[in-house]
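Entry 12.
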Amino acid sequence: MIGYILISTAVFLLLLKLYNKCTIGVCQSQRLLHGKTAIVTGSNTGIGKETARDLAKRGARVILACRDQQKGLEARDEIIRTTGNKNVILHLVDLSSLASVRKFAENIKKSENCLDILVNNAGVVGLPPKFTKDNLLIGMHVNHFGPFLLTLLLLDLLKKSAPSRIVMVSSVAHIYAKLSVDTINEKDDNGLRVYANSKLCNILFANELSHRLMGTGVTVNSLHPGIVKTDIFRRLPRFIMLTINYLFGQFGKTAYEGAQTSIYLAVSEDVEGVTGKYFADCKEAQTSSSAQDEELARKIWIKSEILVGLKPEEKYW
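Predicted 3D structure (tokens):
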């Protein structure tokens, strides 16, 4: 009986691995990006670095938006070395600090004449249930409030550069969210639920922003990158982290494979003018019913504006 269970499990895992590999979407676009400028947050490692590398290979001016200077410099040098594109620069930003986000956005607006692609990639999971100096739950701050504020502060530049694209890296984990306007910033000891809530916020933000930007030439889409082995789980308890990394390494995607949908939404001609959609494996995918709730999206937007301290002159609507 035990032998049968082990064999059945092994066969299932093998079939799962084959299924994952056979259904991986790959961006087929050969589009070049000479003269274009792109920002990729969390681009010193994993999916973000592979996304930035691809955009650099296409000739774009790529701005690595990273929190850690040393890791950011190492990523910059590696991308320059592997792509031959020297127009890759590092700007520091801590998405868990509203002041840092504002400083980053101000520096970008002063140094850049255009912004064609913004990939909100950075994310964390498993952080302790504590609040930042801005009195925001840290997991929500990094994954939602920081990108929310950053995107709104860069909208002028994105609109000036239209047609331009905003890409929000979400997750299928959003289906496990238990989100409401009243609890969006409440302390929660369940780090995985906070992660799921923040990923739902990413989709709701993308959907609502797409409506508000209709007719401007700026598109906004969200995505699930897949089950990918990255260091996003490094803050979980060691045993859990090692288990997840082993399973994801054996049966999930590589960082290169996980970056394909981000790249697809950033460059592909197939999604020119497409906005307010959710993708996985380089094709449109289904979301939870909560992610399609327009009223919830509007309420989360209004609450987020208040919590990040958006100024009257920074509001477009």
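Annotation: The chain has eleven helices and eight strands. The longest helix spans residues 2-23.
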